[in-house]
Every structure is written in structure tokens, then in C-alpha cells.
Design a protein that fits this description.
Number of helices: 7
Number of domains: 3
Structural class: alpha+beta
CATH class of the largest domain: Alpha Beta
Oligomer: single chain
CATH architecture of the largest domain: 2-Layer Sandwich
Radius of gyration: 22 Å
CATH topology of the largest domain: Pseudouridine synthase
Helix content: 10-25%
Order of helices and strands: EHEEHEEEHEEEHEEHEEEHEHEEE
Distance between the termini: 37 Å
Largest sheet: 10 strands, mixed
């Protein structure tokens, strides 16, 4: 199972999948609404297939997502429509929360349940205290080696393609950040299973945590069921199941403003004249003057217009990314 590929180190981080390359031109229908749909992806669907189905269902010109979930993984998949697709790079900065089932006593070539189990050691002696102590090692910033079967590139080729060719080589370790881990439940025994909650940043492989946790305990481990329960402010309990989306109106009714996937930013309001200038890429002076750091600008009706920063010398808002 290849977990969040925005939160799993996939090389496709931040890329918009399923995007329709058509541009606005005479003869095409008007754009679908800009916004974000909080989808609870069901097991068995790929993230790409969810995006592709929603694109066809809504007729939107551009549809994408912020962070792949593997086919067997479930939970929050932010699907972005129209101009919101341009915000994927910002969405990736949001923390993600997962609930993972880690099986002890075995390892697999893929570090998840999709490959043959290889016994390592009897985990019957492992206790919940042992698990809690080992989990403390997976907190903060640390180096993590992605799985051999991952989309990380090795000399220009995806690691999974190299592995399928008979050379299962793990990519070099890289720094990841885990904000918190906790043991939710533990079923001891010869087929021990630990249920763990992990809150982490982008690039973190949950499969690698399962593998390395088992190694620290001396019994081996692999990732079983994986659920993404939160993506920034998006929660699974507020999501709509991907198999319950039957028509375009359902999507419109559940669409959230594009800014829900933005990290904290200072907000400024533009009047009609300022909005026109910003849409042409020009800097404008706004009151009150924004402070240092990233700034988002909204029109008179509260809709997101642009992202940018403040120029303290000229005392202006400088647009960097303008949304259509």
C-alpha cells in the first residue's frame, strides 16, 4: 500500500493529476466553480480514477488532487477544481493525520500487505510499553529511507520500476517530519497488530514507519490498513464518500472555498479597482498594510483573487499567483 503521495514521498508530490489541459476559448462551456471537495476515498479506487471520474461528471476544465492515496488506502482526498488546482503546492504544506495498522513479526518487499509475507521473529513478547517507547523514535525531524517500491526516482527511473525489474533498491534516506505519534490499540500475540495514529508533514512514508518500527522492536513489521483521517482542516467525518457522488450538483453543494487548503496567511480585501490591477499582475496599496510573510487577497465579495507578499518599502501588496 502506497500511502499519501504528498505525505508519502512520492515524486508526484504537488502535481495535478487528471487535469484537463483545455483552456478557455470560444465554443467551450463556462468553467465549473472553483473550490475544493473533501472526498473520503473508498478502498479499491485510485486517486487518479476519482479525479478522472469527477472531471467527466462535472465537465470542469481542470481537476486535480493534493496528495495521492494508494488504492487500498482510504480517507481524506482533497479534490481541487478549476483555479484551486494552482494551490496544490500550498496544500502540501498542511499537516496530515493517519491511522495505520502495523503488523508485527513479518516483513514484505513492498513494506505493506501487497507482497508476500516473510517471517522475521515471533512478536508475542512485545508489549504496549515496548511499542510506545519505540514510537518516540519517530517524532520530530529524522532521516527516513523510502520503500524500494515507491515513486522516488533512482537515476531518472521510478524506484518501483527498478524494483519490478529485479533490483529492489531503497532510495537514499531523506529528512521527514512527524509532529506526533500515539498508540491507539494493540493486539499482542504471534500475529500482533498495533493501531497507530501519526500526524506528519509531506514526504513521510507510513510504510517506512511500519517497517522501521518493526525493525526497532527486532521482529519486523509492515503496513496493513491505512486511513487518512485529516488533511489540514479537512476531516474525514465531514467528507463525502467517493462512491456517493452521483452528479454535478452534489459536487457543487459540497464544494468548499479554495482557501481551505492554504496554510495560515494574512488576508487583505481589494476593492473593484484594486482587483482589476492585481489581475493584471500589478502591485496595489491596501489598508491596513499587511505585515511580512505570505498574504492572500480577496475581492469585495470575499472570493480569493491572488496570493502574494507585502513590499515594506513601497507599502504595497505584490501579487505572485493570480487566480482566474
Amino acid at each position: 500500500m502506497r500511502e499519501d503521495r504528498s505525505a508519502s514521498g512520492n515524486a508526484r508530490i504537488g502535481r495535478i493529476q487528471g487535469a484537463d489541459a483545455r483552456q478557455d476559448r470560444p465554443g467551450l462551456p463556462p468553467r465549473f466553480s472553483t473550490g475544493v471537495l473533501n472526498v473520503d476515498k473508498v478502498a479499491g479506487e485510485t486517486s487518479f480514477s476519482v479525479v478522472n471520474r469527477l472531471r467527466k461528471l462535472t465537465g470542469a476544465h481542470r481537476v486535480g488532487h493534493a496528495g495521492t492515496l494508494d488504492p487500498l488506502a482510504t480517507g481524506v482526498l482533497p479534490v481541487l477544481f478549476e483555479s484551486a488546482t494552482r494551490l496544490a503546492e500550498f496544500a502540501l504544506k498542511l499537516p496530515k493525520t493517519y491511522v495505520a495498522e502495523i503488523h508485527l513479526g513479518f516483513v514484505t518487499a513492498t513494506d505493506d500487505a501487497e507482497a508476500e509475507l516473510e517471517p522475521v521473529a515471533d512478536p508475542s513478547a512485545v508489549t504496549d510499553r515496548d511499542l510506545e517507547a519505540a514510537l518516540t523514535l519517530f517524532s520530530g525531524r529524522f532521516l527516513q529511507q523510502p520503500p524500494a517500491y515507491s515513486a522516488v526516482k533512482l537515476e531518472g527511473r521510478r524506484a518501483y520500476a527498478v524494483a519490478r525489474g529485479g533490483v529492489a533498491t531503497r532510495p537514499p534516506a531523506r529528512e521527514v517530519e512527524v509532529y506526533a505519534t500515539s498508540l491507539l490499540d494493540f493486539q499482542p500475540g504471534a500475529r500482533a497488530v498495533a493501531r497507530v495514529e501519526v500526524r506528519c508533514g509531506s514526504g513521510t512514508y507510513l510504510r517506512a514507519i511500519a517497517r522501521d518500527l518493526g525493525e526497532k522492536l527486532g521482529v519486523g513489521g509492515y503496513l496493513g490498513r491505512l486511513v487518512r483521517t485529516a488533511y489540514g482542516p479537512l476531516r474525514m467525518e465531514d467528507a463525502i464518500s467517493s462512491d456517493a457522488i452521483a452528479d454535478s450538483q452534489t459536487v457543487r453543494d459540497r464544494l468548499l472555498p479554495a482557501e481551505v487548503i492554504l496554510p495560515e496567511m494574512e488576508r487583505v480585501r481589494l476593492n473593484v479597482e484594486q482587483e482589476a490591477q492585481v489581475r493584471q499582475g500589478r502591485s496595489v496599496r491596501v489598508l491596513p498594510e499587511p505585515g511580512p510573510g505570505p498574504v492572500r487577497a480577496h475581492d469585495a465579495e470575499g472570493r480569493l483573487v491572488a496570493l502574494g507578499h507585502a513590499d515594506p518599502l513601497r507599502r504595497t501588496f505584490v501579487p505572485e499567483k493570480v487566480l482566474s
